[in-house]
Amino acid sequence: MRVLGVDPGLTRCGVGVVEGVAGRPLTMVGVGVVRTPPDAELSHRLLAVEQGLEQWLDEHRPEFVAVERVFSQHNVSTVMGTAQASAVAMLCAARRGIPVALHTPSEVKAAVTGTGRADKAQVGAMVTRLLRLSAPPKPADAADALALAICHIWRAPAQNRLQQAVAEHTAHKTAQGTARRTAHATKGRTA
């Protein structure tokens, strides 16, 4: 499985591609940051994020895109920029038919470090160890993008099984309801 992790942001949008399967050593394919100038117009910054993400999608051809779920912060302008960059990432993936998964920061931290309260240094250290890198990726946005990809690779099999079980349960309940309605309708006609 090849996953593009996106740590959304307007000034620095972290991107990282990881390949592998749960339970096996993972491989970093690429890591970096899409940057935009803070003094540029918002529309131009969003366009730059889109163009940068499109280049990553063209070059690395991921099967999945994992994006950090935007969470509430006290700084509304930061949240807005993060949400807008997140939407651009989801749009780029959807345009290509690539499935998108959203993971909260605490889910990612827990998956990579074992605790949802880990700091950026702990996440960077674990990403370095898990991907057998010589040094933590810089800036932290790049390491966070790799952590998102790792989290998705590790969590996807369980999430897929859960979604499949829910779908099967729903289909079973729907079939039972249809059978009951048919039996009731038939009983009504024979009475």
Whole-number mean pLDDT: 90
Q: Based on Cα principal axes, name the global outline.
A: globular
Please count the helical segments: 5
> How many β strands by DSSP?
5
Largest sheet, described in full? Answer: 5 strands, mixed
Strand order of the largest sheet: 3-2-1-4-5
Structure classification: alpha/beta
Q: Segments where pLDDT lies below 50 for 5+ residues?
A: none
| Oligomer state of the chains in this structure | single chain
What does this molecule look like?
Helices cover 58% and strands 17% of the residues. With 191 residues, the chain is an alpha/beta fold. The model has no long low-confidence stretch (mean pLDDT 90).
Features:
5-stranded mixed beta sheet, alpha/beta, 17% strand, 191 residues, single chain, 5 strands
Provide the fold topology:
Elements: E1 2-7, E2 12-19, E3 27-35, H1 42-60, E4 64-68, H2 76-95, E5 100-103, H3 105-113, H4 120-130, H5 140-190
Parallel strand pairs: 1-4, 4-5
Antiparallel strand pairs: 1-2, 2-3
Quick rundown:
The chain is 58% helix and 17% strand.
